[in-house]
Amino acid sequence: MSTTDDKFEIQTLTQRYADAVMRHDADDWGACWAEQGEWYMGPEPIVGRDNIVTTWSGMMAGFPFAAFLVQPAMVEVDGDKATSRTYVQETLQGTDGNAFRIIGVYNDECIREDGKWVFQARRYTVLYQGPVDLSGEVIGYPKD
Amino acid sequence: MSTIDDQIEIQTLAQTYAHGVMTRDPEVWSSTWAEDGVWYLGTPEPIQGRDTILQVWKGAMGGYPVVLHIVQPGVIDVDGDTATARWYIHESIVTADGEQIYNMGVYNDTLKKENGAWKFASRKFNSMYRGPADLTGSLDGYHAYTVDA
Predict the structure, then answer these.
(1) Residue B139's closest CA among B96, B98, B104?
(2) pTM
(3) Residue A108 CA: distances (Å) to CA of A20, A51, A118, B92
(4) Does A131 sit within 8 Å of B133, measured CB to CB?
(5) Nearest CA among A55, A64, A12 for reference residue A37
(6) Which residues, at least 6 apart from A102, have a Cβ–Cβ distance to it below 8 Å?
(7) Which CATH number fits domain B3-135: 3.20.190.10, 3.40.50.880, 3.10.450.50, 3.90.600.10?
(8) Which residues in chain B have their CB less than 8 angstroms from residue A91's CB?
(9) Domain limits of chain B?
(10) ipTM of this model?
């Protein structure tokens, strides 16, 4: 398989992840993760696909509306490993009806597991979180 | 031709469709449809055939001075000369009355090769949200969402 093919499959992975968020589909979403995947939304990761899916399902229950827009990823492939960076825009509406927006960036490590590319680690950094009209605080890109 | 080549052409087709909306260009927009394409827009009967589809589209666009149609890359499954795909769209709309609307939804599509080029054989749209741009509107559209084509 060529590097171009690998890059394309990793692009597809990020889209399948977004599609599963849109559909609130825990099976399809979980299939994007490596068995021993690590999800960083802060300093300490959530480890293991089952734990990650359980955490996600709990979070998603609070957001009946979750529109997850992802830009094409920047991917570097090295054999059976790859790194990827993806910008996302989330528009969320909670069960209380209040809507807000998150703009963030995922810095990812991907691996080939059982012949297909999956996320080994996703590190999420929030660049903006607040009202949809962007009247909230803009956090901006991290220095480090 | 590999499946990846097909997938890239199909991604491009959805971008061409969006470009047709952005530029309000009927030739570009209708070029993405198969001759006998079917458009499911939530009306009781689907709209059938490229010529009829184009007439309906022109009428709809006439009511919207502004339609900004953003489509994110889709999820595509190719099977020979046919394919299925799913795309999420985000539209910022201004109506003839000056009302600003955010329309967000999903297209579940079938595609086929016609004269060697990928075209939409059917597009089925389900709105996930339609209302004020600050998302203070109803979630009814979301609950109407279905994957079934």
Answers:
(1) B104
(2) 0.86
(3) 18, 18, 10, 31
(4) no
(5) A55
(6) A88, A89, A90, A92, A126, A128, A129
(7) 3.10.450.50
(8) 104, 135
(9) 3-135
(10) 0.80
